[in-house]
Design brief:
The complex is a heterodimer of chains A (277) and B (377). Chain A has 277 residues and is an all-alpha fold. Chain A has 9 helices and no strands. Residues 38-47 and 97-101 of chain A have low confidence and may be disordered. Chain B has 3 domains: 2-146 and 292-376, no CATH class; 149-221, no CATH class; 224-289. In chain B, 66% of the residues lie in helices and 4% in strands. Chain B has helices at residues 11-26, 31-48, 57-79, 111-137, 140-145, 152-181, 188-216, 227-252, 261-279, 295-313, 316-319, 333-341, 345-348, 360-376, and strands spanning 87-94, 105-110. The interface between A and B is large, with 87 and 96 residues.
């Protein structure tokens, strides 16, 4: 049923994706690791330098991934579907509003990653966020982190095991809940070191050991962001549960209609009834 | 004086100017300098922003910045924690459960702590202001147009998304009207389902039409690149990627040798950039009316760089004014004068082209004035 490889994943694009994933893990996780940059200076202002560095590095790597994937791996149909789905996602994102933390954009991204494959999910996640930021004039240092978080969500949706029928919708709904929750936790990590105004028990300790920072981070999640993460997870699951089936059907229909990666087959003998001249 | 022709400045120049100002803001907590940066970005935005939907984003970012300061001050007032002797108010202390041990709600609010958190909040707010200025001054479409050739396909996908998002919103309105006419008043999930699925179906059909149109016009055909060029691109990009991944280890791990991080990072970026330049030769694509990069663009970018350099050169004692003991922040001469340079783009940047929508007389006047300028130059 699935049509993997709408966006072809060549070894070089895979290498670029792996690189951005590794750097992204560092970029999100440096506050939890024993950060050399954070510990280098006692002045609190310098502790955020590491984060700024990763903003630049992740932007650069996302650019490389998009360039690598688009070079030869994308055709007109994939670009058109990418653009239209990203446009829908970008239009849906402000509708849901940031108040509850719940975002409509997930419910398109996850079925699309499922139907069109993991690399398509990766690119769609990144491009949806980019288009949304450009539309609302919200380009800023948070953008690469959001793009990467969404890209991972789309990629993960493409990696889910093969299932059909109602089970598939339950699977996607469960994934939507888990990914919506994890997305919140991850994005907390990206701005948490900047939030130096927090009380000491939940604040980032520059140069502190791993255990302290992990405990503080979990406390921070529990006390501040759970009110955003749980509605997002529940909202994703409910939307996919109710809309997942028709959305999957619509996406599969377009994947058949556009006939992605069709391989022409030629029969050895010309069929009868054709004029022979 | 050809550059006085009304035109929009290259978006890259505005982004450079704004980013350098944001860097300058991130290196100081001196409120005098930070307020100067707000004033500068505000003035430049007011005089050089085009009439477009996103030009309101400066005010939006300014509001977010103010919220930042407000949240910061409120949180400080609630949980305190900074040293200080000048107590302004004493709030009642709220007891908390034991797992929050160490967190104190309420208690004395000191002038020193208030000043420290206000300075820090202001710094974050000013960085947001700079980003908002860049968002207000540049058009995302133009920014996408000046992407390097290697990003062409991704750029097209984003352009399609930007063009499509308003259409999707319009489609929702249309469908809602159609449902109302048919007397359907569903609520909740059923309503969303009745709207979302037709919008999505329509959008996907449109995307297939678009793909056919793009395919018919030769989109996605690449010029022939020789085997050698392709191999060189691959080698450069992969080597650059490896270097950059290795650099993160050098930056984060304490056990890594000290000089590993930044040089590897810069080297990796340079290698990848070289790969991009070699790879761009494959395209054979031309640009439709490319945005030029002329003297004003150089000057605008340079003013930003000059301001950031000036601030970085300032004495640390004056850039990070003491809040404990609390003193009046000094005005450092070199950083302040350097920052003032960054207001020059309000005059350096070419005047904005007039919008023709306001009627024939304005259009005629606009054309007339443009011709007059051309004659004068």
């Amino acid at each position: 049923m699935t049509a993997p490889g709408v966006v072809r994943l060549r070894p070089r694009s895979a290498a670029a994706m792996a690189a951005v994933t590794i750097v992204g893990l560092f970029g999100f996780g440096w506050p939890l690791l024993d950060a050399r940059l954070a510990g280098a200076s006692s002045q609190t202002a310098h502790s955020s330098d590491a984060s700024w560095l990763f903003v630049g590095l992740l932007t650069l790597l996302l650019v490389i991934v998009l360039a690598e994937i688009s070079e030869g791996g994308i055709d007109a149909k994939a670009v058109a579907v990418l653009g239209v789905l990203a446009g829908c996602g970008a239009a849906l994102r402000p509708l849901s509003g940031g108040v509850t933390g719940f975002s409509f954009a997930f419910f398109l991204l996850i079925p699309a990653g499922r139907v069109f494959g993991r690399s398509f999910g990766f690119v769609l996640g990144a491009i949806t966020l980019l288009a949304s930021a450009l539309l609302t004039g919200g380009v800023g240092p948070w953008l690469p982190f959001e793009m990467l978080g969404f890209a991972w969500t789309g990629f993960g949706a493409g990696c889910l095991p093969r299932m059909t029928g109602r089970a598939e919708v339950y699977l996607l709904a469960g994934y939507g809940a888990v990914s919506g929750f994890l997305y919140g936790l991850l994005l907390n990590l990206s701005f948490w070191p900047f939030a130096q105004y927090l009380p000491q028990q939940i604040a980032f300790v520059p140069g502190g050991d791993v255990y302290t920072n992990v405990v503080h981070w979990i406390r921070f999640d529990l006390t501040t962001s759970l009110g955003f993460d749980i509605p997002r997870a529940v909202g994703n699951a409910i939307l996919i549960l109710f809309l997942g089936g028709p959305v999957l059907a619509a996406l599969r229909r377009v994947s058949r209609r556009a006939n992605f990666n069709a391989v022409p087959t030629f029969s050895p003998q010309p069929s009868e009834g054709l004029p022979t001249s | 004086m050809t550059h006085r022709l009304p035109r929009l400045l290259h978006p890259g120049a505005w982004w450079l100017w704004a980013t350098t100002l944001a860097i300058a803001a991130s290196r100081t907590t001196n409120p005098l300098l930070l307020v100067a940066i707000i004033a500068i970005t505000g003035y430049v935005v007011a005089s050089r922003r085009p009439a477009s939907p996103w030009s309101a984003s400066y005010a939006m970012f300014l509001t977010i910045g103010l919220v930042c300061i407000g949240v910061r001050l409120t949180l400080f007032a609630l949980v305190g924690g900074a040293p200080g002797t000048h107590i302004l108010v004493r709030l009642p202390v709220v007891p908390l459960p034991h797992w929050m041990a160490g967190v104190r709600l309420g208690g004395p609010i000191t002038a020193e702590g208030l000043a420290a958190s206000a300075y820090d909040g202001l710094r974050l707010g000013v960085i947001l202001c700079c980003i908002g200025a860049a968002n207000a001054l540049t058009s995302p479409r133009r920014l996408l147009k000046s992407l390097p050739g290697a990003l062409y396909e991704a750029g097209v996908a984003v352009t399609v998304a930007l063009a499509f998002a308003p259409q999707a919103v319009a489609a929702v309105g249309r469908l809602r009207a159609a449902r109302r006419i048919r007397g359907r008043h569903d609520r909740g999930v059923r309503r969303i389902r009745g709207l979302a699925i037709p919008v999505l179906e329509g959008a996907l059909d449109r995307s297939v039409d678009l793909a056919a149109a793009m395919d018919a016009r030769g989109f996605g055909r690449n010029g022939a690149a020789t085997q050698r060029v392709r191999r060189t691109t691959a080698a450069l990009t992969l080597a650059g990627l490896l270097a950059m991944v290795a650099s993160t280890y050098g930056l984060v791990a304490r056990s890594a040798p000290a000089g590993l991080g930044v040089p590897l990072l810069v080297g990796g970026a340079a290698l990848t950039a070289a790969g991009f330049i070699v790879g761009a030769k494959r395209g054979g694509r031309t640009r439709y009316r490319p945005d030029p990069w002329r003297l004003p663009e150089w000057l605008v970018a340079l003013t930003g760089i000059a301001a950031a350099t000036g601030v970085l050169l300032g004495p640390a004692r004056e850039l990070w004014p003491s809040t404990y003991p609390l003193v009046a922040p000094p005005l450092p001469a070199v950083p302040f004068l350097a920052l003032l340079v960054a207001v020059l783009p309000a005059w350096i940047a070419p005047p904005l082209p007039r919008v023709r929508a306001a009627g024939s007389t304005t259009a005629a006047r606009s054309v007339g004035s443009r011709q007059a300028v051309r004659v004068a130059s």
